[in-house]
Design brief:
Blueprint: H1 5-15, H2 19-46, H3 50-59, H4 62-71, H5 74-103, H6 106-117, H7 124-158, H8 160-177, H9 179-197, H10 200-203, H11 208-220, H12 226-237, H13 243-246, E1 248-249, E2 256-257, H14 262-272, E3 276-281, E4 283-292, E5 318-320, H15 325-335, E6 339-343, E7 349-354, H16 355-363, E8 378-382, E9 385-389, H17 394-401, H18 418-426, E10 435-438, E11 441-448, E12 453-460, H19 463-468
Parallel strand pairs: 2-3, 5-6
Antiparallel strand pairs: 1-7, 3-4, 6-7, 8-9, 9-12, 10-11, 11-12
């Protein structure tokens, strides 16, 4: 009676256990250890914290010096690690293939190919070779991923400094051995790096539209609340917003003239509710300084002859309308200021912008106990109807109604306020009750005078209503 195929297989395994079979296994284990050490070195050397670096500098031993020297040229160190790791992995793959061929005779795969060919329309020899390749890939991938990547990197991330000290000699040796090859690799990759850096769109394939879609998806999946999503959208568009889009217009600036007496000035300041007030000479285009209300605290009982101009500060920051608010925020931080005067192309005062205006672009409207509810620039009637002041900036309108800040870009030209948008669309100051539509928005003039539009009703139309209109 013929023995079972399984019995034949086990018998072959036992008889084949000799040096020719054990040598590939020992070499594979040795190369796996090398792969683990090299992979762990990548994490260990590149995850050293500033505190670790300072500790190495204070240590001032030869071992510490060699570690710091390796970190002086990160691209070369990384190239050395990648070259070594790839060579080791190739060796593991070749040895694994040799081991599989020694473990399984050719006729075994041929027999399996014949059996599989009964169900698939391919040649048995091809199926046998494919099966041998598949087994090699599966075994090698398992060994490399688990023992050559995952485990050593987990250990190195926890013990990065100790691992770096253990590997500093081998890495220095490998750095010298592969120096010609790593230098050529760095030079060749620098060409692509230069081209990619010249094209930011290639370096960052995630467009703003894709990020906005991701935020909308997160909201729909209840990962973020609407308020959190608005903050994320504000951060996303923060770098594109200009000072002109968020500034308080010239007509809405509260300022005091330098020729009024102290009591009159004090009364104006007291009723204004502002903590920083521009001071001008003759006209608003000539700002001579800023008056900080806190500087008046010690003089509120003085007579009207008190020279209050001596407490006016002359550190006025002037910025152009086109300046990005992200750049202005950095300037505010470096100069420790909270307010800037916005000037147009002719040097005239165009508006005023504060640190609070910038922060509101990210976190929304900021109010405190001194803000009056009636001072708001809009009234929300319901989810689809709002009444806005004509001077309200389009950015603020979009934020209130929950739309993108570029929703009106097709209709507007140079305007930044809702009234300016209506004027550009209609071409003249419209009468009271006049209605105008744009995409799925309907505008109705509520209050108007001979000089400007004061109040506008904005209605958000449903898609059905819009198509019927």
């Amino acid at each position: 009676m013929e023995p079972e195929p399984a019995s034949l297989f086990l018998t072959h395994i036992l008889l084949s256990t000799n040096w020719m079979l054990l040598s590939p296994i020992l070499l594979i284990i040795l190369l796996l250890i090398c792969s683990a050490l090299i992979s762990g070195s990548e994490i260990a050397f590149f995850s050293l914290s500033p505190q670790d670096i300072q500790g190495l500098q204070k240590d001032n031993t030869e071992k510490s010096k060699r570690i710091l020297k390796l970190r002086e040229n990160p691209p070369k160190l990384l190239a050395t690690i990648l070259i070594t790791n790839n060579l080791v992995n190739i060796g593991i793959i070749l040895l694994s293939d040799l081991f599989i061929k020694q473990l399984f005779p050719n006729n075994v795969f041929e027999k399996w190919g014949v059996q599989i060919a009964q169900y698939l329309p391919w040649e048995p020899s091809f199926l046998g070779s494919a099966l041998s390749f598949l087994i090699t890939v599966l075994i090698t991938s398992f060994l490399l991923v688990l023992f050559g990547e995952v485990l050593p990197k987990i250990y190195a991330s926890v013990n990065n400094l100790g691992f770096a000290k253990f590997m500093e000699r081998p890495m220095n040796l490998l750095n010298r051995v592969f120096s010609p090859l790593s230098n050529r690799l760095i030079k060749s990759t620098s060409i692509f790096e230069t081209r990619l850096s010249a094209n930011p769109q290639v370096m960052d394939p995630s467009t703003k539209e894709e990020l906005e879609d991701a935020i909308d998806f997160s909201v729909s999946q209840s990962i973020y609340e609407d308020e959190q999503a608005d903050i994320l959208r504000g951060i996303l568009k923060f770098g594109d917003v200009t000072v002109k889009q968020i500034m308080k217009s010239r007509m809405d600036i509260f300022a005091v003239e330098n020729n009024i007496d102290f009591k009159e000035m004090f009364k104006l300041v007291q009723n204004s509710g502002f903590s920083r007030i521009p001071v001008f000479e003759e006209e608003l285009d000539v700002i001579i300084g800023l008056l900080y209300v806190k500087d008046l605290l010690g003089y509120h009982k003085d007579t009207k002859e008190f020279d209050w101009l001596k407490v006016v500060r002359d550190n006025v920051l002037y910025v152009p309308e086109s300046k990005k608010i992200s750049d202005l925020l950095k300037e505010f931080q470096s100069k420790r200021l909270h307010m800037a005067i916005v000037v147009d192309e002719f040097g005239g005062t165009s508006g005023l912008v504060t640190l609070e205006d910038i922060m509101e672009e990210v976190i929304g409207e900021i109010t405190d106990e001194f803000d009056d509810e009636h001072d708001q620039d809009y009234i929300k009637i319901d989810e689809h109807n709002y009444i806005f002041e004509g001077k309200t900036l389009l950015n603020d309108v979009c934020r209130v109604i929950g739309e993108d800040i570029d929703i009106f870009d097709e209709a507007k030209k140079t305007s930044d306020s809702l009234a300016g948008l209506i004027l550009e669309m209609h071409g003249q100051i419209p009468p009271k009750g006049f209605e105008l539509s744009h995409t799925n928005f309907k505008f109705r003039i509520i209050e108007v005078n001979k000089r400007r539009i004061e109040k506008i009703k904005l209605q958000i139309l449903d898609p059905i209503e819009e198509s019927e209109g």
